[in-house]
Design a protein that fits this description.
alpha+beta, elongated
Amino acid sequence: MLRLVSDKWTLLLITLLGRQPYRFNELHRAVEGISQRMLTRTLRTLESDGLVEREVFPTSPPGVEYRLTPLGVSLLAPLSELAGWAVDHHAEIAAARRRPT
């Protein structure tokens, strides 16, 4: 699970989907620098882990929308806490990185 949430695309997608459902192309436009292949791969992983659900609409071409599952929503609070910790300790981490090893 740590490997999953340490991936930058995963965190970004969970954060975005925590705001609202997105269609694939909307997500692709919203996430600067992600390839279609990586977006597809990350969404499939999140779906198989039960964090994201995919809904297909019977349109031509078929529309697909992604949203967080209740399990995915439950991950938002811990991620927010982790981000807050990183902000609170940014100066200490930066200082540690500058120390010679």
